[in-house]
Amino acid sequence: MRRMIGRGLLLAAFAVATFGAAQAQSDYPKRNITMIVPFAAGGPTDVVARIVSDHMARTLGQTILIENVVGAGGTTGAGRAARASNDGYTVIMGHMGTHAAAVALYANLSYKPDVDFEPVGLAAGTPILILTKKDFPAKDLKEFVAYVKANNTKLNMAHAGVGSVSHTTCLLLSSILQVKPIAVPFNGTGPAMNALVGGQVDYMCDQIVNAVPQIQAGTIRAFAIGTPERSPVLPDVPTTTEAGLPQYQASAWNAVFAPKGTPKEVTQKLADALDKALDDPAVRKRLLDLGSDIPGKDRRGPQALGTLVKGEIDKWTPIIKANM
């Protein structure tokens, strides 16, 4: 009898705990959510995060607070997100650098992008541009290539930190051109762009989201875009193929992740909120005006993002290791 009573109490306790957990998940979110952006404010990842999180917050009924955690090419913020509580109240806007390229760049990476996170969904694709300061001595990409080859040890190439998109995509460019410029790291693409605008550095490879306003204002120059087609936002900027460097094809992406073990119901609520944001006309216009690529329905959601991360790790690892 005592054993039966004991078992009954245990079952009752388990049922209460299970019900409580399920109730907590169904009530999610009940307070503010923090979205870690692993780069400085003003950079492309930060811009995309603020655009989509604003709409997601309205769908979820809670404020989403942006927290910029800079350092180590975005891996400082990504590591912090991986160690955060898996209750759905901390997420990260990661990107190709933090969740793919970093695997090859950092021997002692504190997290595994394809293991230590629950994928939520792809937020935006971002084509890469080859950019220079406004008075760079070249009139087109062919002259840029010739000048860089002749003067590469004297030129300063800006990037947002080892492992960042601006770093890895310029590694690819350096590999193709067989040059080794002076690499100048910054705590984010925003500060790197400011240095380019100010003429303190010579060139960089950057995501279109961060560059369009400066290109349109004439404060920097864009020699080519690393995609098969021109961007409707920058119709006068030729593709790398058109400009004579077809080997250089580069595009990045931003996506939302939650810490490993975040309940599936919670990640699905986040994914649904992101999906609604990407379908909103105002959000779409803001992203498209910046030159972003909005993922179609077949590229959204946790499963598609998980597949993308694994594929990107496989793609970038050999490229980076061959050029380190």
Q: What does this 3D model show about the protein?
A:
About 2% of the residues have low confidence. Strand 1, helix 2 and strand 2 form a beta-alpha-beta unit. The chain folds into 2 domains: 163 residues, D-Maltodextrin-Binding Protein, domain 2 (3-Layer(aba) Sandwich), CATH 3.40.190; 125 residues, D-Maltodextrin-Binding Protein, domain 2 (3-Layer(aba) Sandwich). With 324 residues, the chain is α/β, with parallel strands linked by helices. Helix 4 packs parallel to helix 12. Strands 1, 2, 3, 4, 5, 6, 7, 8 and 9 form a 9-stranded mixed β-sheet that branches. InterPro entries: BUG, Bug_dom1. Belongs to the UPF0065 (bug) family. Keywords: Signal. This is Tripartite tricarboxylate transporter substrate binding protein BugD.
Summarize, please.
Helix content is 47%, strand content 19%. It has helices spanning 2-26, 44-60, 75-83, 97-105, 141-151, 165-177, 189-197, 208-217, 240-243, 264-279, 281-289, 301-321, and strands at 33-37, 64-68, 90-95, 117-133, 156-159, 182-185, 203-207, 220-225, 251-259. Strands 1, 2, 3, 4, 5, 6, 7, 8 and 9 form a 9-stranded mixed β-sheet that branches.
